[in-house]
Amino acid sequence: MVDQVTLVVVGDIAWDILIRPEDEFVWGTDVYGAVRLSPGGSAANVAVWARRLGARVTLAGKIGDDALGVLMRANLDREGVSDGVQVVRGGPTTRVAALVSPHGERAFVTDKESVLGFAPGDLDPALLDGADLVFVSGYAVFSSASAAFLSPFLDEARRRGVRIAFDPSSFDLVASYGPTRLLREVGHVDFLMVNEAEAVTLHPDAPAALLDTTGTVVVKRGANGASVTGRNLSRSAVAPRIEVVDTTGAGDAFDAAFLVEYVRSGDADAALAAGNRIGSFVARHLGAQPPMGEYP
After folding, report:
1. Domains in the chain: how many in total?
2. Which helix or strand (DSSP H or E) is residue 73 part of?
C-alpha cells in the first residue's frame, strides 16, 4: 500500500467551449440552451481529479501566453497541478468546442490552429523523481504527429520501475493514426485505459488480445460500469444509476480515481468502484471539472 500516490500526467490542456441545447440542435435557426467556457483537456482533467483525490500531481503540458493561457494558468495553480506546465511564447492555448446532446453524449471539434504538440526534449527525466506512475493521454501523441518525444521518457520510467498508464483518448484519432503503429510507438504499459469503442479499434478481440502490449486493460463502459482484465485478473463493476447531463471528462475522472486507488491499495474492486463513482459524478454536471461540493 502507498500512503501518498505521486503521478506525472503528460498531455493536453484545453479550454472547452460547451454547447448544450435544451432540445435537439437544428441547423438554420435558434435554440436555447447552455454555453460555458470550462477548463478541460484530457490530461488536465486527469491531473485535476487525481490531485483532488489526494495524489501529488505534476502536469506536463503546454499552454499559450494569450489571455486564455493566463486564465488556464490561474486555474491550474488553484488546483495545484501547474508545476510541469510550459508556456509557449506567442502560442495560442488549445480550444475545443463540445456539442453536448440533451441526452448527455458529446462531439468535439478541436481548433487545429491552437493545438500545442510536444517535441523531443520537452519531457525532462527529472519529472519522474519520486513518481509512482506516469499517465499519458493519446492526444499528446496525436497532436505531436508521433510518439518520438515520448519514447525516451517512458524508457526512463521503465528503467526506474515507474508504472505507466496510457489512454488513447479517441477511437477516431486512433483509427486515423493507425492502431498498430500507436501501440508499437508507445510500447508496453502497465495500464491501458480505454472505452469500448477505443478497445475494439485497437484490436477487434479486445480486451484479451491487448494483453500482449499491457499488463492490465481497463474498459470503461459508461452506464454499464467498467471492467479490468489482466493475465490473472478479471473484475467488473456496475456504475451508479444517474441522470446524465454531460459525459465530457467523465472517462478522464474515472482514469484518475481508478489509478489513484489502484496504486494506493492494489485492490482492483476498490479501484473500479472509485472510478465509477467519480465518473458518474462528473457525468451529472456540465463540464469536465465541476466543483466537488456535491461529491458524496
Report:
1. 1
2. helix 67-79
